[in-house]
Design brief:
Number of strands: 2
Distance between the termini: 7 Å
Oligomer: single chain
Number of helices: 15
Strand content: under 5%
Length: 260
């Protein structure tokens, strides 16, 4: 079954998803559920649990997060990184900041920087929290600053006295990520995001897959130019770097998203 029609509604799905995952009245139902997107749990508006924050929490307690791993494994096995391209609020934010006029940099999809997200997952999300007993990824998370750190500090004067070196370090990290996202498309998703690293492992085996009609493909390279990750689609249609935004399907009829 071809699912290309989804791309026509992406401009609607992304903002609706961003709103849905930040509706506080849903929190009583979803607060204990790890959502399939990168969204700050500390934000007062958050309706669901951040999966990365949940994983850290259990490793801080030195407990294997079986439930969260199961949920993420199920989502990954079903659709790979589809949620990165269609549902993630931070991904949606990156799409917007990349529209800012500036000099753009090309980052090949197999560049060594793209492997940092696996180190981010292994070291910052698992090993360091396990050793130190502190959720260091969340402490440094730039999205946490956007959704919680900065707003709470502005509106709650009692928190302003707690501002210290860590707060300023997080501001620096946030600025660096935003600037990088302006010049490199989907910088966070491609280079740092540990959730993307998890879902990417399922791209080649998920139920929903990208498919290329090799017989009709003339290797024109248009798909590479439009792809946020600059993937050579006709050679690596289900690369771990593919966020399944389906932009390539809008320019080439030989590329489809299929439900097998």
């Amino acid at each position: 079954m071809k699912l290309n029609i989804l791309f026509r509604f992406r401009y609607l799905i992304q903002p609706i998803s961003a709103i849905f995952f930040n509706l506080p009245f849903l929190a009583p139902c979803l607060r204990q559920v790890p959502v399939p997107v990168f969204n700050c749990y500390a934000c007062p508006l958050a309706s669901g649990a951040c999966p990365i924050g949940t994983i850290q929490h259990f490793f801080v307690l030195k407990i294997l997060p079986v439930y969260t791993i199961g949920v993420l494994g199920f989502i990954g096995a079903l659709s790979g990184r589809f949620s990165c391209g269609f549902l993630c609020p931070f991904g949606y934010f990156q799409d917007w900041i990349y529209k800012i006029k500036s000099k753009k940099l090309f980052l090949p999809h197999k560049h060594f920087l793209t492997y940092i997200k696996y180190l981010s997952l292994l070291i910052l999300v698992i090993i360091i929290p396990y050793i130190t007993g502190e959720p260091w990824f969340s402490k440094l998370c730039p999205l946490g600053m956007i959704q919680a750190g900065i707003p709470l500090t502005i509106f709650d004067q009692s928190l302003q006295s707690l501002i210290g070196p860590l707060f300023y370090l997080k501001i620096i990290i946030l600025v660096a990520v935003v600037v990088a996202g302006i010049v490199i498309e989907r910088f966070w998703c491609r280079v740092i995001c540990p959730l993307g690293a998890i879902f990417g492992l399922f791209n080649s085996t998920s139920l929903v897959k990208m498919k290329v009609n090799q017989q009709n493909c003339n290797d024109c390279g248009v798909c590479i130019k439009i792809c946020p990750a600059h993937i050579d689609i006709h050679k690596e249609a289900n690369s771990p770097e593919c966020i399944r935004c389906l932009k390539c399907t809008s320019t080439c009829k030989n590329i489809t998203l299929n439900l097998y």
